[in-house]
Amino acid sequence: MSFSSDIKEELSKINNLSKKDEVKYELIGYLISKNTTILQNNIIRFATENDYNINRYSKLLKNLQINHDIEFDGKVFIIYTKIHNLKNIIDVINDNIYIKRIDENEINENNKKAIIRGAFLGAGSINNLDKKYHLEINLSNEENLEFMDSILKFFDIKSKTLKAENKNAIYLKDGEEISTLIALIGSNKGVLQFEDMRVKREMSGKVNRIVNCKTANLNKTINASIEQIDAIKKLQQTDKFNKLDDNLKEIALLRLENPNMSLIELGRNLSIPIGKSGVNYRLRKIVQIAKEL
After folding, report:
1. Of the residues 186, 219, 241, which one is the last residue of a structural domain?
2. Could you read off the pLDDT of 223-279 as tens digits, one per residue?
C-alpha cells in the first residue's frame, strides 16, 4: 500500500463516533472535497477506490442517521445520498456543495481538525516517502478551498493554493508542515513513519553533501597537482629549473615524486617542514614562473 493509503486506513479507525459534532464536521470535510459531486434528481455522489475511506464515510452517515446506498463500479466504491438528507449541513447552489453558512470562529478546534481530516480522506494524498514531499487536498470549488485554507492558517500551517478551471487544491511541500498536518488529523503512526523517513532522507542528504564536497576537493587537488607537475616539467626543459632557489627545487622534486600527496603531507616531508600555506605559496610561485616563459 502507499503511504497515503496507510494514513487513510489509520484515520478510518479513529474511535470518535460518539462525538456527534466531530462526526458532522468530518462529514462536511468529505462533502466539500472534489470526489463529492451532484447528480440529477438531487443525488450526492461520493466515489473512492479506497475501501477504508468508503467504510469511514458510510459510518459517518449512519452515525448521523442519514440514509445512503453503496455501489461498486470496477475498482471504485460509490455512495449515493439525497440532498435533502444533508440539508442541515450543506447548501447546494448551481450543482456546487457549500458549507451551510456558519461563523468559522464558532467552530471549536477539534471540529476544525475533523473538517481537515474529512477533506483529506475525501480527496487528499501524500507522495510516497521516497519522493519529494507533497501533500495535496482537492476541494470542489474555490470557496471551499478558501475555507479550508483559513482553517489551516488557524493552526499556523502555511499552505499553498492552486486555483484553476478544473482544480482547486491546497498543497504543502515542506516536511515540517506536512508532519504537523498528519499529526493534527490524528494519524499518530503516520507521523512516526513520516518523521523516520525524514531523518533518513536528511542523513542521506548530509552524507551525499559530504561525499560531493570531498569529491570536489579531491578533483580540485588532482587538477592543481597536474598543473603543478606540468609547470615543473616545463621548467626542467629549460635552464630556468636550475636557477630556482633551493626551497622551490625541493618542493618541485617532491611534487614530481608524489603527484597524489596533499599539501599538508608535502610540507611534512620537506627537509625543513612547513605548513600548508607555505607549500601552496611555493607551488603557486613555480606555476607562475612557468607561465612567464
Report:
1. 186
2. 777 888 888 888 888 878 888 888 888 888 888 888 888 888 888 988 888 888 888
Residue 129 CA to residue 134 CA, distance in Å, equals: 9
DSSP string, 22-47: HHHHHHHHHHTBTTEEEEGGGEEEEE
Euclidean distance between CA atoms 284 and 32, whole angstroms: 70
What share of residues in the chain are helix, strand, coil (percent, to 5)?
55, 15, 25
Q: Is the dihedral of CA 156, 159, 163, 166 positive or negative?
A: negative
What is the number of other CB atoms lying within 10 angstroms of the CB of residue 58? 16
Full domain range(s) for residue 139: 3-186
CA-CA-CA-CA torsion sign (68, 71, 73, 74): positive
In the chain, count H helices and then E strands: 10, 10
Q: Is residue 201 part of a domain?
A: no
3 state SS of 278:
helix
- Residue 153 and residue 220 in one domain: no
**H/E stretch holding 96:** strand 96-99
Strand order in the sheet with 69-73: 36-39, 43-48, 76-82, 69-73
Give domain status of residue 199, yes or no. Answer: no
Query: Given this model, what pLDDT does residue 67 score?
Result: 92
CA 246 to chain centre: 59
Which region among 34-43, 131-140, 173-182, 209-218 has the lowest average model confidence (pLDDT)? 209-218
Q: In DSSP terms, which residues pair with 163 in a beta bridge? A: 168
Q: How confident is the model over 190-215, as a mean pLDDT?
A: 73
pLDDT value of residue 139: 94
CA distance 197 to 129: 7
Which ranges constitute the DSSP H helices of 101-245? 109-123, 142-154, 175-184, 188-236
Place of cell 470518535: 16
